[in-house]
Amino acid sequence: MPWARLPLQALLAALMVQAAAAETILLPQPKPDVGAHANKPIEQPLPQPATTAEPTPLPSADAVNPDRFGAKPADAAYGAFQRGLYKTAYNLALVRAQNGDPAAQTLVAEILSRGLGVPLNSAEAAKWYALAAEQGVPEAQFQYALMLLDGRYVKKDEKEAYALMQAAAEAGNRLAQFNFAQMLVQQDPGDAGMAKAVSYYERAAATGLADAQYAMSQIYANGVGGRPRDDVQARRLLAQAAQQNYDTAQIDLAAWMIEGRGGARDLKSAFGWTKQAAEGGNVAAQNRLAKLYMQGIGTDPDLVLAGAWYIVARRAGLIDPQMDDFLQGLSDGETKQALQKANRLP
Questions:
Q1: For residue range 206-245, what is the model confidence (pLDDT) as tens digits?
Q2: Domains in the chain, please, with CATH?
Q3: Which among 123, 136, 145, 226 is most buried, taking Cβ atoms within 10 Å?
Q4: Cα torsion for 329, 331, 337, 340, to the nearest 10°?
Q5: Do residues 130 and 139 lie in contact, with contact meaning Cβ atoms separated by under 8 Å?
Q6: In whole angstroms, what is the distance from residue 37 CA to residue 295 CA?
Q7: Is this prediction's pTM over 0.90?
Q8: Chain segment 320-330, per-residue pLDDT in tens
Q9: Are 103 and 70 in contact (CB under 8 A)?
Q10: Per-residue 3-state assignment (H helix, E strand, C coil) for 241-298
């Protein structure tokens, strides 16, 4: 099955609680000279996750890596899998899986769970993941733990899921490391839970997992989990996640660049990151981009594009009274142009 992750709400909620106990930490606000109509501070310590915090497909690089299944690169089944010959890979692996080979069991489960060359069959995949997990394959432990948490194809068992997720995390599975950290924070939103989770977030972040990089950026930004506040480190991690098209990080990084938090002010780059997130469909970014165009922050002022991007955001359900007033102030010609441009925007 495609890999999933526990949502970042648990981490962010824990950070909000800890921040409230000390002092309110708001998102960066633009300097006074940026413009009178720049983004208002968000009345929460941290932003809620954007669209990318929803479950995403298993990265293709991991999906075709034979080491992920504990197999030898020369193995015929994995060779077929890597070449996209999924039905052949399934047939070759199934015989070995039935004879108890844990790597082959994991591959069969993967093919079944994703419907690659064979009909999708998550219930059958769960059986093979369970067998491979019992034999200590980290990928199978991770995937079966997700199934145990979900409870659709196997009986829900959070205790067993916790144990398997921890085992996979300790074995070095980066997705398990991130998810196990989330489980620890959910169990104990206080600083003790965060302190336990940090090492798992950090290990996953070191592998380049954008979710974990963003999580670590929030930990350093707030100085929790036994880590001192370090805006420079937090901004570096935001940049790493943003470069992987993690839109929440792109929005935060842009705000930090406008303020000059954790590094130099860079209005042009801030505009670029906001635009990238907006073009990717992030509604909050679309509204912020409208404001940057309105005030000429990091770009030349463009009232028509400002109106167009806000129209796009508004159609998606975001309502901003300030931008509603702005739209009302446009001329009939500008409003018509804004509507035309909005219809052509992503």
A1: 999 999 999 999 999 999 999 999 999 999 999 999 999 9
A2: 1-70+137-265 (1.25.40.10), 284-346 (no CATH)
A3: 145
A4: 60
A5: no
A6: 7
A7: no
A8: 999 999 999 99
A9: yes
A10: HHCCCCHHHHHHHHHHHHHCCCCCCCHHHHHHHHHHHHHCCCHHHHHHHHHHHHHCCC
